[in-house]
Write a structure and sequence with these properties.
By secondary structure, this protein is α+β, with helices and mostly antiparallel strands. Strand 4 (108-111) and strand 5 form a beta hairpin. The protein has a 7-stranded mixed sheet. It is rod-shaped and about 125 Å long. The chain has helices spanning 33-36, 80-90, 94-101, 156-164, 174-187, 189-209, 215-243, 253-318, 334-356; strands spanning 37-44, 49-53, 69-76, 108-111, 115-125, 131-141, 144-149.
Length: 359
Amino acid sequence: MTPASKHGVYRGFRRSTGVGALPGSTERETAPISEKCRLTRISYNVTLAEEEVIDTVAELNEDVPEDRVYWFRLEGIADPETLRRLGEAFEIHPLALEDVVNTHQRCKVEDYGDHLFVVIRLPVREANGSMTTEQVSLFIGEGFVVSIHEGCNALEVVRERIMTARGRVREYGADYLAYAILDLVIDNYFPIIEKIGDRLNAIDEQLESGFEPGQRLAIRDVRADLLLLRRTVWPQREAIAVLMRDECTLITDVTRTYLRDCYDHTIQLMDVIETYRELCADLRDFHLADISLRSNEVMKTLTVIATLFMPLSFIAGFYGMNFQHMPELRMRYAYPMTICLMLTIAGGFLYFFRRKGWI
């Protein structure tokens, strides 16, 4: 892994709004609505489902049949004027619109009386392979749901269910539609969690087969993804718990039953995330222990070599003294005898180390 690829693994919190920004401000630099976003209206009941593209925000004020559920789906980056007109059409609080524009919000539920404002995070993989989350904003009212997402086609599965009458979404009200969107977003976490599990298994097998320099960075990348998921799923669980309470009058008892399933899924995600985080810590400790063990093996080898050569260096240094009257210098077999003595000492050291289990 190159140094450039390590940049931005632990991306901290970045607030979209500037210091001193006015409350409820939706101003931001953006391109015209026609180039950056798409607004569609899906209306349905048990017998029919229709979809149309809204070209102008003024069409939101048109008279529509009351026996249908309406899903207004805004995808892409909308300009401030579009958001302002959208807020006027559905009487959305300016602070909620500000949270829509500044997509650094945590998962939450806010009750404005006649409508609920829900923020959830959708996990996505970027082009460079890193993981991030995108904000999906929902406004839930009596007979309508407004979804705002700067990505594209993330909620296409729910749209297909409505248009093809699959499932029960056309049998219930707007609150069930909101549940279907929440359930889809939560389901997107499971494939990512499964891939993280596969990555951890691959790292575990690599650690068992031997040391590689890139293993430490691979563990760090997985741990960064798990930290991001934990920071996202934890408040998402709290948000679903708020929707399940009786204080939310826009949520029916039937939908609360399905929301309990979403809540169970978030609990399961949290359990798996915590388990994988512990596994990451274990793999990192194992990796560090393997590095320490290899260092100890190298140091032990060098110590054995140094210990073997200490007496040999002494003998070589002793007979390397240039004194004229050294009795062994004139002996015929002094040289082979010295070599044999040095080999005997080295062999004795090796035998001693072997008996002690040091080598």
